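Archive transcription. Copying these from loose printouts into the bound notebook so they stop getting lost. Printout 1 of 2:
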Amino acid sequence: MGDVLGKLQELQSIYDTVLQMCSHRPQELQKCLVSKMHSKEDFDKACHWLKQANIVTFPEINLMNENTELHKQLAKYQLSLEPSPEYENLLLTLQRTRQAMLPSLNEVNDSYLSEKLNALPLQFNGITTLAKDKFYEVQEAILAQKEYASLIELTTQCLSELKDHFLKMNQVPTNLVIEEAVCLWNVCRTLLEEVAGLGGAMDGLTQKEESFHSTGQPWQPDRMLQLVTPYH
């Protein structure tokens, strides 16, 4: 009788253990399923961002575009780069989630997932590096065009002022006293020095014009012609 009772108690203990395991197993499966669903969402989100960022960064920069178009291009690169820290963290989260999911994955699924997750950081680094390079290239082009336009404007203004001075000089009467003649000579000498200084500015503009022309950037030929012709 005692042996039978012992066997029954042993069976009861085994039953309770199995029952407990069976009740925990659905919870574990549910937790694993939720984790996989979230990982799938994060994975799709990361892939979508990489695809969109690649679309923005892949085309070659057209330096022949006007300043307005370059600013639009710069804004696109900036919009792609701004969320990059968020997606970098998302990729790290996916790597950690994969480690946690390993016990529930078979060899084929683990191999497939590992291949995909290992490729994402490489794509991420390549795209963000390219976007940064192009961002700075466009930024430099915008600054160069702005500087070029400012130099043209400043040189045009200086040339116009010199032209006005020389026109006034032509109106000076010839019957000047010595003091007036000396004063006029000093004015002429100052004007000649300014012309010489303007020559240096013109040389600098010509170099920038050649640089812009060789790279296809807008070099404002009409403005330069209007500037060079009266100077010479």
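Printout 2 of 2:
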Amino acid sequence: MHNSVLGVQPGCRAINLDEEGIYGDCVGLCVPLNNYDTFRSVSIEFVESEYTLYIYRNLQCHSERIEVPLMKCVSGEHEYKMYKLVCDD
């Protein structure tokens, strides 16, 4: 399992909106963050070394890919809509 923290406000220090567990059966899939909330910050607290988490501002996961580094905050005024956990072969 890989843990990411999702925030409604820019900056990962604000109150977290959600915490998401990403399991092995989701690897390589384009998954919506949430259909009801707006996410403007994402951080990842744990990920196995052979995986990378990407977030996207669009619903197709094919452009605007943003890598979420371990223990770093990805934040901005725009909304993040989808994520994909990728195995780094």
